Amino acid sequence: MNCFGRTEKIILSMIQPEPLPGSYRHRDMAIGEIVDRALRETEMVARNHFDGIIVQNMNDMPVRQESNPEAIAYMTRISYEIRKRFPELIMGILMNWDGVAGLSVADAVGADFVRVEHLYTGASITSAGILKAQCVDIAALRKRTGSTVPVYADVYEVHGIPLGRKPIGDAAWECVNEAFADGLFMAGKDSAESIEMIKEARPRVKDTPIFLGGGATGENIRELMKYFDGVSVATWIKNGDMKNPIDPERARIFINEAREGGS
């Protein structure tokens, strides 16, 4: 499967900056220092030969579905600086939990794709309440701006509870054929469920890239990469807590295991 002009399977690391100014968890770190830390973390990821990154304001929790203006501005600043310093890396943008804002940032900085994690189609209950599909608004934004940034949508993000859940194959087909996603992310509660999900979805969206969106570890990624076109990893290479910085040794272990599984 060809993803971002490459035929090999894609291995991505999440870059999750410190809490941004205006968010609940932000204390006194200036945006310049936040940018510098994100650049250092991206440099380490690049040294470990990851194919790319997804920049996500994960540390801004709790958030609503609509991003605040300052979050969009700061994410644009961070992502632009990373893009300028590391143009060779594949770059995705993920805004918690606003796909319209994410696409806006991605288009502004020339990112390779936007990931819409909560919520592209359907409706889901999360800690932020009921989130509803943004596919119509995202399609309208693409039309207005002429954006060609590919949209990669999560199918039933593992931390939400879908309302009126459909079989995973039907939900994947709907994302691609009715809501016009260019690629998909999916993940189950464990590796066995993730494999079961992609086995069910793959026949329905044969020509669509499907990435593993969560649950990857140094122990299971070799097996999982036999089924998925790519993977994004965060928690395991941060020693089990996404608030931690990336552990260089765990990053090295993960990339080696993922390459073995994807070969």
Question: What does this protein look like?
Answer:
The chain has 8 helices and 11 strands. With 263 residues, it is α/β, with parallel strands linked by helices. It has an 8-stranded parallel beta barrel, surrounded by 6 helices. Helix 1 crosses helix 2, helix 2 packs parallel to helix 3 (99-109) and helix 3 runs parallel beside helix 4. The longest helix is centred in the N-terminal third of the chain and has 17 residues, at 31-47. It is globular, with a radius of gyration of 17 Å.
How are the SSEs ordered, and which strands pair?
Blueprint: E1 10-15, H1 31-47, E2 52-56, H2 69-85, E3 90-94, H3 99-109, E4 113-116, E5 123-126, E6 129-132, H4 135-145, E7 151-154, E8 161-162, H5 168-177, E9 183-186, H6 191-201, E10 210-212, H7 221-224, E11 230-233, H8 248-262
Parallel strand pairs: 1-2, 1-11, 2-3, 3-4, 4-7, 7-9, 9-10, 10-11
Antiparallel strand pairs: 5-6, 5-8
Helix pairs in contact: 1-2, 2-3, 3-4, 5-6
The ordered string of helix (H) and strand (E) elements is: EHEHEHEEEHEEHEHEHEH
- Tell me the overall shape: globular
In DSSP terms (H or I, runs of 4 or more residues), the helix count works out at: 8
Helix fraction, binned, reads 25-40%
InterPro entries: BtpA, RibuloseP-bd_barrel
Organism: Lacrimispora sphenoides JCM 1415
Protein name: BtpA family membrane complex biogenesis protein
Family: Belongs to the BtpA family.
